[in-house]
Amino acid sequence: MLPSQPLLHAAVFALAVLQALASDTFIAAVYEHAVILPDATHEPVSPDDALALMNKNMDVLEGAIKEAAQQGAHIIVTPEDGIYGWRFTREGVYPYLEDIPDPAVNWVPCTDPTRFAPAPVQERLSCMARNNSIYVVANMGDKKPCNASDPSCPSDGRYQYNTDVVFDPEGKLVARYHKYNLFRRETQFNYPKEPEAVTFETPFGKFGIFTCFDILFREPAVVLVSELQVDTVLFPTAWMNVLPFLTAVEFHSAWAMGMGVNLLSANTHNTNLAMTGSGLFTPEGPLAYHYDSRTEEGRLLLAELSARPRLSPTYPPAVSWSSYATSIKKFPEGNDTFLGAVRRDIFTFSELRCKAGNYTVCQGDLCCHLVYQMSNKSKDEVYVLGAFDGLHGSLIKYHWQICTLLKCQSTDRNTCGQPVETAQTKFEMFSLSGTFGTNYVFPEVLYSGVELAPGEFEVLRDGRLKSKHGTSKPLLTATLFGRLYEKDLPHPLRTSL
């Protein structure tokens, strides 16, 4: 007698679990998705029209999920806003929302779609996971009714949340996360009253999840890693690239290295908004990444990662970020330091006038030290050492400490800190350090063409960011990006909650 379909499915899932348990690694996938956006309208669309658009996007995501599963992936992350986009008012996004229950209800929408209110998006995502025996991570909208007994209840009688969901290989909802740090334009969504530190266990490690702008703040990002000790972070994002320090692949790779965890980052793809850059990042650097500002195509990435990176023999040692910088005498601080703006942040810069040298630049409590040697000193390019110690942001103000070696946009020093994507100058060596007042420092190295430099630099235990050999490509920036979370100002939009 042939086994029934549920029994066969359970057997296949059990075998997959045993295979994963037997391994110290797992295969992860991320999909950078060129989102099909709704037409701009003044009135909200009907629920049927909203679902039709979401199904178009889910058709694309399903193709990527099937392909990832066929290539052996255990988990796939899809982007923030990947199912319906981001062009919404509060009323306009409502037809796209579903009520997403607490995962404690133990629900498989694919096999029990009528248990709660109609949830066609959750049902379809659940079936994608179940039919392909893969964890599926997606971003969608959650709606929660409220009433006058809740003094914070919005006037329309509901909360609306930017939400990540995770379905396991049986299609069960195992995680739900409401984005805590909304980007300033996300007025269609509410702030959760408290930050949610969402984790779940898998056969290949402990996972945490947060979304996009969250990565720049302590809660929940740092809490998940430092206190809850997750091995891997799932990171749906709709990230607009900002040179010189905040391109997606550059900062997300640096965050994974600085925090000592895997980061599975899936970005939306929209070149008009400078959205691109996804990757599978580890404490030792990127295993696979994608940056494409020229085409409008999506991209699937896969890599094999350590399931529990802290137990790996190659796990990087703990870093004392200010150790070296506070132990040496300052190099001569040039008399020609000047101020320059990186967006709205005023840096103190010093121009690297020679092919090789030692420099120190200070601002506030931060002194940055650089030892360098260029392979060639072009008359057409200017490089500077820069320091910034202060609050960043116009509305939401959070404290940065940054030491950076960067290329100016032109030979005019007024352009230092402005975006530049190409360079010609290679370095024989560089060593950058700073007197940081934080343990949260993220090491960035970015090459010409917005390319990462895996394996070409290291962070020493004493806090030096150092090239291993000469740079293989011209350098855009080498940066130590520090965050002093305890000096952030109270959030202006959340204090009323």
Summarize the structure.
The chain is α+β, with helices and mostly antiparallel strands. The protein has helices at 5-21, 47-70, 90-93, 120-132, 218-227, 248-259, 323-327; strands at 25-32, 75-77, 135-145, 158-167, 173-178, 199-202, 205-209, 232-237, 262-267, 278-282, 285-290, 299-306, 338-342, 345-351, 356-363, 366-374, 383-392, 398-407, 427-434, 441-447, 457-459, 465-467, 475-483.
Description:
The chain is α+β, with helices and mostly antiparallel strands and 497 residues long. 17% of the residues lie in helices and 32% in strands. It is built from 7 helices and 23 strands. The chain has a 6-stranded mixed beta sheet. A 6-stranded mixed beta sheet has the order 6-7-8-9-10-11, with helices on one face. Strands 13-14-17-18-23-20 form a 6-stranded antiparallel beta sheet. A hairpin with a 2-residue loop joins strand 15 and strand 16 (366-374). The longest helix has 24 residues, at 47-70. The mean pLDDT is 94.
DSSP E strands, number: 23
Q: What's the number of helices?
A: 7
What structural class do the secondary elements suggest? alpha+beta
Strand order of the largest sheet: 5-4-3-2-1-12
Unreliable residue stretches: none
Largest sheet: 6 strands, mixed
Q: Oligomeric form of this entry?
A: single chain
Radius of gyration: 24 Å
Distance between the termini: 61 Å
Shape: globular
Mean pLDDT: 94
The percent of residues in helical segments reads 10-25%
Order of helices and strands: HEHEHHEEEEEHEHEEEEHEEEEEEEEEEE
> Which band does the percent of strand residues land in?
25-35%
